[in-house]
Amino acid sequence: MAELDLNIENASIPEYGDDSIKHLEGLEHVRLRPGMYIGKLGDGSHYDDGIYVLLKEVIDNSIDEFRMGVGKQIDITLEDGAITVRDYGRGIPLGKLVDCVSIMNTGGKYDTKAFHKSVGLNGVGTKAVNALSSEFKVQAFRDGKTRIATFEKGIQTSDSGIIDGEGANGTQIHFRPDDGPKLFENYKYKEEIIETMLRNYCYLNTGLTIFFNGKKFHSRNGLLDLLTEHLTEDALYPIIHLKGEDIEIALTHCVQHGEEYYSFVNGQFTVQGGTHQSAYREAIGKTVKEFYNRNMELSDIRSGIVAAIAINVEEPVFESQTKTKLGSRDIAPEGGISINKFVNDFVKQELDNYLHKNSETADILLKKIQDAEEERKAIAGVTKAARERAKKVNLHNKKLRDCRIHYNDTKGTNQDDSSIFITEGDSASGSITKSRDVNTQAVFSLRGKPLNSYGLTRKVVYENEEFNLLQAALNIEEDMDGLRYNKVIIATDADVDGMHIRLLMLTFFLQFFPELVKRGHVYILQTPLFRVRDKNKTFYCYNDEERESAIKEIGPKAEITRFKGLGEISPDEFKHFIGKDIRLDQVSLRKEDVYMGMLNFYMGKNTAERQDFIIDNLVIEEDEVE
Fold first, then answer.
1. pTM for the whole structure
2. d(C-alpha 342, C-alpha 339), whole Å
3. pLDDT value at position 577?
């Protein structure tokens, strides 16, 4: 047997010696690995993009002051991409001002005597903001004294020291996110996203007033106001609103499918739920079932529910620095009552008492549960057959070209990047399939125009093969907890047929899975309408304005191509439109949208009414004369 040579020189193996061992001083690690501290970066188009996490980290400190009984007002201004937050709390201790915003694992939140049940417990938040900002200024006011320090990308540039200064006690922080390479390139704050964040802060902290660019945010009724704001349909009965020490809940039912929850811990919006939300969901079903003393399915009890819960916990444990999911199981750090028992005991006593005292609400709720049961039983046979069919094709779903990373993965990274494109026809899906990132981008191909599902019962979800396979691919039959893709992207041609397919898909989601839209998971893919090029330059244009600008840039010899469908775009070109330069329009759903009324008008059986509307609003554009 030939002897194996273990001393083969291999130039491809990098050297690994003393010089390879690095120690990152100060805030360098935050800049090198920002995702560990703020989640994804993003450009500001989505609510969980990094620039909003930076703002949240600063506001959280001001909220903690309010929760300690000081500082009932917070002033926030956004100007030219930079944000200033001024609170009127106790103010950061002047002697430790610089340390508190620049030295990791330094802060007052470790002292539970100074801060009870706060959100920021790991001494990271404001330091991360400092490190990831091209300019950062902090000023504290305490009893006629002040101190000001400035930083650039986490490096201190000035310190006034402790000096005399006028101003009410509190802290003011000004920062501008760093738009340098590999950070917040081309970022832009969306005021509507910030306003939603501020409303949530006020719902969870009644009595707090926040001014944002002069606009006032305030809540008198907490979670009652929150549910009232978020309901997109009329509630079947008045919202049940119950408060106790360290817990507040609100709930009602609507004529919709699925379940909808808003959960908070110490004022933090836990978008992905966690221990407290799971306990609340379980407690509602159990309490209602015991109240009626009937053999009810929990799914029938919770069908159409819209509910919110807020709890206060000492030393909460979140599953990431962005604090979107609670992992704590105990109320107290040592031997405390479990969160599950804490929530269950409160719901069991208070909700049961409420239903006994409000018989009219109890009767309406019972009727809603019975309607859900009747519908479930009516489609039981179809549901069973559809599930069996879905299981058979699960390993080889002919409609689905899956990716490797999914939103509901419990391990790994980049779950937030997981997305699925819903395309029309083999031609379009072929281009996307060949150019996609197989790790994070899946493709689901429609065979043409899907069925108009408006006014139909949930039975159609199981009887229609495409809808059933899509439901299985998304894994949302039971609830949103198992959702496999963070972004559900409708990718259709930019023509009349493509627009119709968009509407049909939105009708399907709004009719049967409205929470998918309300949670911000549904998007519309924008693709270029024109390609303008010459031998040296190529521009992809998404509208007439961009086309005219490109023609002006290239000159009279510009070659102009009009893309009629996604299938006309080559895979080599398409990879640019679904990669880092992807343009997505998030589908939002607000109370004022009254979406069921819109669906009834646009997708219902009132053909004559729609025809009159089209005739009255028809605009004929004459071709431009070159």
1. 0.70
2. 5
3. 80
